[in-house]
Design goal:
This protein has 414 residues and is α/β, with parallel strands linked by helices. The chain has 2 domains: 141 residues, Aspartate Aminotransferase, domain 1; 254 residues, Aspartate Aminotransferase, domain 2. The chain is built from 15 helices and 17 strands. It has a 7-stranded mixed sheet with strand order 4-10-9-8-7-5-6, sandwiched between helices. Strands 13-14-17-16 form a 4-stranded antiparallel sheet, with helices on one face. A hairpin with a 4-residue loop joins strand 11 and strand 12. Helix 4 runs parallel beside helix 5. It starts with 12 loop residues before the first helix and ends with a helix. The structure holds ligand 7TS. Ligand 7TS binds next to helix 4.
Length: 414
Amino acid sequence: MTVSSPISPVFDVYAIRQAFPILGRMVKDKPLVYLDNAATSQKPLAVIEAISDYYSGYNANIHRGIHTLAEEATGAYEATRHAVKQFIGAASGEQIIFTRGTTEGINLVAYCWGRQNIRAGDQIIISGMEHHSNIVPWQILCEQKNALLKVIPVTEDGELSLTAYQNLLTDQTKLVSIVQVSNALGTVNPVKEMIAAAHQAGALVLVDGAQSAVHLDIDVQDLDCDFFAFSGHKVYGPTGVGVLYGKRALLEDMPVFQGGGEMIKEVTFEHTTYNELPYKYEAGTPNIADTIALKAALDFVNATGKADIRKHEAELLAYATEHLENIPGLTVVGNAKQKAGLVSFVIKGTHPQDIGILLDNLGIAVRTGHHCCQPLMKRFNLPGTVRASFAMYNTKQEVDKLIAGLHKIIKMLL
Ligand code: 7TS
């Protein structure tokens, strides 16, 4: 039976849930309540089938063969590139580079662009709410080049201090690398304005879109970002595939990433010339199956409608926040004016990990800990938080279960 969501009459969340086989499973004899979507989202059947269709129907290596299977596989792989181009508003498919995920995309820029363009005394700006994958690659680069890493401070509410950011921008700033939606706080950063300010100062900007690509409409040309990285597995797609977008002139100028097959034009023992974009950065046999299946995920999101998904998730977030704040001793961490998809919290006298384990006993999956944002946790003097993160298939009833579970756990622990 299909029932309409009580909070979003236009958005039939129960029909959507039917498309995700895993949502029917039990955990600890209770129906699964999956609220760890910021770590990885669940996959609709269309994505799972796209993977098995490839292996059972047209498994072949791409770009190399002239036989039918190779042509079919190449066509499907390149169709994903086209779908990604549309999904993020890129000007051309050649600016879409397939990676393993956000982490690899950021590392690619640090390695290829950074090694060529960063010199001693240069400055790179990140923010105090970055995931480790948008901290460590820049630290490595700064150490190698004797450059300086500067950090935009985070306010008590979990927003970036834009005044401090303006003050950090100097003519020594070469790159700003910032997260669009924080995975630990849910904060939506005003990246468009921040990009304009960086460009004014002559710096390039990389946007970490790991959390934003699934929640926000992304238009890389409107943002005018120089690089944009995201992961397939957080947009209902498979693990092991991600995307790095870059402005054409930058991608053309940057030195190559890995050497090997596919990224070359001609190889002799004396000299090698490199392939055109985007193949220049795609050495070796890529993750063909998962890249093909990423298109099924993007098609699914588009067909469901990003605006409706956003509205649904915003309602869940508001509902959850309101009820969480009524729990005695509970503090929501991150009260930015603009938030997307998730809520982090701590409960006085309890450890986040204990809450996570006890919620799991109720079949409720949340993430606990530092969320790969140790400097941010230090900023708030916390060992970690409990994080509930929402997806298109979550329901108000699931939020009710979370709240009821927390009340029960608190009674037990305190
Ligand atoms: N940037 C942000 C903002 C993220 O949230 C993550 C993953 C990454 C980068 C790295 O993405 P990956 O796909 O390359 O691993 N965030 C999380 C999380 O919050 N819980 O598990 C992974």
